[in-house]
């Protein structure tokens, strides 16, 4: 019996016609854009996988580029989401450094703390339970890293992707590992 192809989990980097990164989209959506002629494959899958149909074949893409330019509206602030916060803190607890599972407000909301990038941190369940609605000074705790709003031109793009393909790095302006 053939293996089931992981359509839903694999992500593909979508570039504008100017090679500016736009988003990471599902493999299924990327293949549809390529087959419809709206995008072209810039980099194929590193393993060389090819999708076959009765009339054609398509190289499984890792990076695709739109055929025509798409204007991107300016968005000033990065919206705070659970996935974004966990990505910012690299899934590490701000208090003990363990694996983070929850979000904690440094200054509890019950004490007037805002729900902002600078007041929220990733936290493990044990530390979150121990801290409860106390201030750090009351417990004698310190943050490992001071929370700040994320910056960078491609931060939104990477926040929703668990692991970026190494072929994406030249387009994101980050050094190859």
TrEMBL record:
<keyword id="KW-0378">Hydrolase</keyword>
<dbReference type="Pfam" id="PF14279">
    <property type="entry name" value="HNH_5"/>
</dbReference>
<keyword id="KW-0540">Nuclease</keyword>
<keyword id="KW-0255">Endonuclease</keyword>
<dbReference type="InterPro" id="IPR052892">
    <property type="entry name" value="NA-targeting_endonuclease"/>
</dbReference>
<dbReference type="InterPro" id="IPR003615">
    <property type="entry name" value="HNH_nuc"/>
</dbReference>
<dbReference type="InterPro" id="IPR029471">
    <property type="entry name" value="HNH_5"/>
</dbReference>
<dbReference type="GO" id="GO:0004519">
    <property type="term" value="F:endonuclease activity"/>
</dbReference>
<feature type="domain" description="HNH nuclease">
    <location>
        <begin position="80"/>
        <end position="129"/>
    </location>
</feature>
<protein>
    <submittedName>
        <fullName>5-methylcytosine-specific restriction endonuclease McrA</fullName>
    </submittedName>
</protein>
């Amino acid at each position: 019996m053939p293996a089931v192809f992981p359509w839903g989990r694999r992500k593909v980097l979508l570039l504008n016609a100017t090679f500016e990164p736009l988003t990471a989209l599902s493999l299924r959506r990327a293949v549809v854009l390529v087959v419809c002629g709206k995008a072209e494959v810039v980099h194929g899958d590193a393993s060389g996988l090819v999708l076959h149909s009765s009339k054609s074949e398509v190289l499984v893409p890792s990076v695709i580029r739109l055929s025509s330019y798409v204007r991107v509206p300016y968005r000033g602030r990065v919206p705070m989401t659970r996935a974004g916060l966990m990505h910012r803190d690299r899934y590490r607890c701000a208090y003990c450094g363990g694996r983070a599972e929850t979000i904690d407000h440094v200054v509890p909301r019950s004490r007037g703390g805002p729900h902002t990038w600078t007041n929220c941190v990733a936290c493990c369940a044990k530390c979150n339970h121990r801290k409860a609605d106390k201030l750090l000074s009351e417990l004698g705790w310190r943050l490992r890293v001071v929370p700040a709003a994320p910056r960078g031109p491609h931060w939104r793009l990477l926040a929703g992707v668990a692991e970026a393909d190494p072929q994406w790095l030249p387009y994101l302006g980050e050094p190859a590992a």
